[in-house]
Amino acid sequence: MTLLTVNDLWVRFPTRQGVFDAVRGISFELGQERLGIVGESGSGKSMTGRSILQLIRKPGVVQAAEISFQGRNLMELSERDMRSVRGNEISMVMQDPKFSLNPVMTIGAQLMEAYLQHNRDSRQNARNKCIEMLEAVSLRDPERVMDAYPHEMSGGMGQRIMIAMMLIPDPKILIADEPTSALDVSVQRQVLSIMDRLVRDRGMGLIFISHDLNLVAEFCDRVLIMYAGRIVESCPASKLREAKHPYTRGLLNALPRLDNPRTHLEVLQRQDDWTHAALEETQ
Amino acid sequence: MVSVTSQPEEGRKSAPFPAWLRKFLTTCGSIAATMLGLLLVTFVIGRVMPIDPVLAIVGERASQESYDAVYHQLGLDKPLMVQFFYYLWDVLHGDFGNSLLTARPVSQDIARVFPATMELATLGVVIGMFLGIPMGVLSAVHRGTWIDQTIRVLTLVGYSMPIFWLGMMGLLLFYGILGWVGGPGRLDIFFEGLVPSVTGMVLVDALLAGDMDVFWNGFSHLILPASLLGYYSLAYISRMTRSFMLEQLSAEYITTARVKGLSERQVIWGHAFKNIRVQLVTVVALSYANLLEGSVLTEIIFSWPGIGSYITTALLSADMNAVLGGTVVVGLIFICLNILSDLLYKIFDPRAK
Ligand SMILES: Nc1ncnc2c1ncn2[C@@H]1O[C@H](COP(=O)(O)OP(=O)(O)OP(=O)(O)O)[C@@H](O)[C@H]1O
Ligand SMILES: [Mg+2]
What is the dihedral of CA B74, B80, B81, B86, to 10 degrees? Predict the structure, then answer.
C-alpha cells in the first residue's frame, strides 16, 4: 500500500547570486517499508524530509506536482490542515537530541504536549500513555524521566525520548533525519533497533536519512541515492552492490568491506555530468 | 551530561552545612562585601572632596575654638581607619548625617524622595515591559517585514530623542492643549495632604486610605512622566527581546515543536518565549535599576520630588552628606535587584539548580 507519493519536488532558495535549487525535481513513493535516503553533505536529504512536512524555513520555497499522503495532496492543504498532519500522520526525528528538546521544559511536558495536541484526553491518561511509550523505547525508570529536564539525559536517552515523542500520536510515517549521527557507535545500534522494531510493529513507513551507506543497507528495504539535489539511483537494499550509477559505485568502492578487505580505499572522483544525469532504476 | 540515575548532589558530600544554608551564607557574604566596598568608595569620595565639613557647619566667620570643637565632635582628629568605622557604624544605623540644604537628617530626606522615584520608576518599567516584550517578540517573528521595520523605527526614536524634549512636548500636548493628564507635581494642590503618608507613594497611600479621587488625581499626574520613562525602557527591552527571540527561533527544538503540529502561537509563546525569560529578567531588572536611580531630567521637567533631583541638587550645592546617602541607597537598590534577578534565574532555568 502506498502511503506517500512525491512527484517532481523542488526546494528553492533565492540567494543574492540567484535561485539555488537544493532539491531538483525528485520523485519517489513510500509504502509500509523502510526507505533509506543516502547522499553526501548538502545533497538535499534534509530538505527533502522537511519539505514533506512543509517545514522549509523562509526564504526557501517548496514546489511539487504532488506530495500525496494517503490520497491527499499536502501541497494543497491550508497551514491549519497541515498542522493536523504534522505529528499526527507524519512525524520527524532530528539529528541531535541535545538541541531538539526544549531545555526549559520537563520531558514529560514535551511528551504530553505531543500526545494532547492530537488527542482529546485527560492529563492522567496522557501521562500514562507517555510512560508506556517511554517503556516501549526501553528507558528505565520512566516516571523519573518524565519529571527530568533534557540536560539530565544522555545523548542515547535523548534520542530514545525523541522517538517516543514522535511516535506517541501514532503517525503512519516517520522521517528520521540522521537520528543516530550525534551518538557514539555502540548507542547507535541500540537506538536504531528500537526504532526499527517500533516502526515494523506498527506497520509504519520509515524514511531513514543518512550518509552512512552501510547502515542504510542494513536497516532499510530500499535505498535512494541523492547527489546534488537529484536522485541518481533507486534500488532494493539487497541489490545495492549491483548498483550501476558511477556515483553509487564510487561510494561503494570508498567503503571498507569485511568480506573483501583492501589495503587502501578508493577516493571518490566526481564528474560534472552526474549533476544532470537522469534517474537510473536498478530493479 | 548527567544520567538521571546518578545520586543527588547532597547525598555525596558530608559538608558541615546543608547545601541551601551554605548557598545562603555565601550570598549574604557577597552582599556584605559589595556593600562594604560601596561604603568605602563613598567614604573616600567624601574625604577627598575639597569641601570642609566643619566650615559647612560652623560657617565662614566662626572662631577657632568653635571650629576645633566641631572638628573634634565630628571625629576628624582620629585616624582615617577609625573614621571609616564611625562612618560604617552610623550608616548601619541608618544615619547619614544631616543635610545642609534641608537641615534635616539625610535618611529622612531619602525616605521622602525615594518613594516618589519608586512610584514613577515602577509604573515606567511596567509600561516598558508590557509593551516592549510583545513588541520585541512581534518584531522577531515578523523579521524583515514592515511590522519589524515600524517597531524598530519606533524604538529607535525612543532611544535617540532627548528625554527633556519629549517631556516638554508631552506636557504641552496632553496637559496644555488636550488637558487629558495632570500637570507637573504629584497631585493637584487641593488633593495634597488628604491621605496620610504611609508608604510615601501617592497611589498606594490613596488605595490604603480608600480615597479613589486622590488615586485618580495622582494617576493623572504620574501617567505622563511614567509613560515617558516607559517609552525609554521599552526601546531597550524590545530590542533585547527581539535579538533573544531570533536566537531561539532558529534553534532546533523549535522545529521539533512544529513537527508535533503545534500552532505558531504555541511555538512562539509556549516554546521560544519560555527560553528567553531568564535573559529578560536581567534586562528588565537593569532597566528598573536605571529608572530607580532617578532620571534627573524627567524629575525636573515634571517637578517630581524624586531621588534624582535630590542628589543632583545636593551635588550642585556641595551637600556631601546628602550625596553620599543618596549614592549608598542607589547602590543598595542595584544590589537588591541583582539578588532578585539571580533568584528568578534559578526559578526559570532548570539548568541553574
Ligand atoms: N537558507 C538557505 N539558503 C540557501 N541555501 C540553503 C539554505 N538552507 C539549506 N541550503 C542548501 O540546501 C542544500 C541542501 O541542504 P540539506 O540540509 O538538505 O543537505 P543534507 O543532504 O541534509 O546535508 P547533511 O548531510 O550535511 O545534513 C545545501 O547545499 C545547502 O547549502
Ligand atoms: Mg541534513
Answer: 10
